[in-house]
Structures are given as C-alpha cells and as structure tokens.
Write a structure and sequence with these properties.
Number of strands: 0
Structural class: mainly alpha
Oligomer: single chain
Mean pLDDT: 82
Low-confidence stretches: none
Order of helices and strands: HHHHHHH
Radius of gyration: 20 Å
Distance between the termini: 58 Å
Number of domains: 2
C-alpha cells in the first residue's frame, strides 16, 4: 500500500512537471496571439534554432540562465519562470492527489487539476500583461460547470442546479463590486469569478475571500516597494 502511494505521488509530481512545461508554452503564446500548436523553434532575437531538450522540465534552470545559445539574449520562454511554473504545477498536481485521491471516479481530482492549471496560466499572463484572456476563462467556465454538475448529480441529484447558481452568484457579486469601484475590480476579474464559481461551487465563497486577501497583500507589497524606490 505504501509503495503504491509513493508511486502515485511520484507519478502526479512528474505529470505536473511535464504539464507545467506545456503551461509555459500557453503562457508565452496566448497573450501574443501565437498559434498554440505551432512550436517555438527559434530565438526571437537571432533566429537560432532552440535545442529540443529545453522542453524538458527544469532543464532551463541550469542552461545559461534562460539565455540564447548564440546571441546570449534572454528568451522569454526559457526564463526561470519556466522552472517556477513547472514546480508550481507539479506541487499542485501532487496536492490535488493527496487531498482528493480517486474519490468519485477521480472527478474531484480532474476538476482540481484543471482549475489549478488554468489559474497558473491566468496568473502569469495577468502578472505580465495585465489581462485575463476570454479564450481561457469562458471555455473553461463551461468545462467547470460540466464537471461540477456531474459530481453534484452523482452525489445529490436534487441539487443539480447548484453549480450554475454559485457560478451566477459569484459573477453578480463581483460585477456589483466592479460597478461600485471599477478601478479596484476589472472586468477580467468579474469574468474569472464565473469560472471559479463553476469549478468551486459552494467553495467559491472561500475562493473569492482568499483572492481578495492575496490581492490585498500583493497590493501592499507593491506600494511598499514603490515607496522604497522613491526614497532611493
């Protein structure tokens, strides 16, 4: 039993690493409106062919600090961000397995992994480009609704309406905040609440609270860092 658990721990961690590598590709391509399935083969600066083994998770950590082999310029999709994303994905994949296991045919696990993957993509895109792409949020809202509805129907058929209700409730709540204080709450965040409601259902309340908390802490850190720079 212990050996089996260790096997699954390793399996989900490694799966997270490799999926994280794909997430990096999406983080790079989606905001730049590049074709998702068209591989990035050359350095944007000098057009040198990029070795295939840079796609292997964590390899970029020790390879020239994410710089091109030829022109030595930093390549966005070979940066240390790759390593952070891969390790984050691996950790979250493992955490989902530890928390959910294969409960209810693995549906909770699948839902958690998909949500974490999408949130990683959105977070890193938003961090750099200040956008939350509709092409991610809206389709995966439907995915979340579908999975959550199946879970609810299997567990308690009489509450089949809950995913849609919490999804709509989260959206309306965030929309009201946006209308009251548009500078503090963008429309991207409002649309994101749709997806969170779809995946988290009743737990969306906790999710939104944590989102506000993390956002507030991040805002304070940015304000403090800006003040320090001004003093210097």
């Amino acid at each position: 039993m212990v050996v089996k658990e260790i096997f699954f721990y390793i399996l989900f961690f490694l799966s997270g690493l490799f999926i994280g590598s794909f997430l990096n590709l999406l983080i790079y391509k989606i905001p730049r409106k590049l074709p998702i399935f068209g591989p990035v083969k050359t350095c944007p600066e000098c057009s040198t062919t990029i070795p295939f083994y840079t796609k292997v998770p964590l390899v970029t950590l020790g390879l020239r600090g994410g710089r091109c082999w030829s022109c030595k310029n930093k390549i966005v999709f070979l940066s240390y961000q790759n390593t952070v994303v891969e390790l984050l994905a691996a950790s979250l994949f493992l955490a989902n397995y530890i928390f959910f296991g294969f409960r209810l045919y693995g549906l909770y696990l699948i839902s958690g992994i998909i949500l974490c993957s999408i949130l990683i993509i959105i977070s890193f895109i938003d961090l750099k480009f200040k956008i939350i792409p509709n092409k991610i949020v809206l389709p995966f809202t439907l995915v979340g609704l579908s999975i959550s509805t199946v879970i609810i129907v299997l567990e308690n058929p009489g509450r089949w309406w809950q995913p849609l209700a919490y999804c709509a409730g989260a959206f309306i709540f965030m929309l009201i905040i946006h209308l009251i204080y548009p500078k503090g709450m963008g429309l991207g965040d409002v649309k994101l609440s749709l997806m969170l409601g779809a995946f988290l259902v009743k737990n969306v309340i906790v999710g939104l609270f944590l989102g506000f908390l993390i956002g507030s802490i991040s805002g304070l850190i940015l304000i403090i860092s800006k003040k320090k720079k001004l003093r210097q």
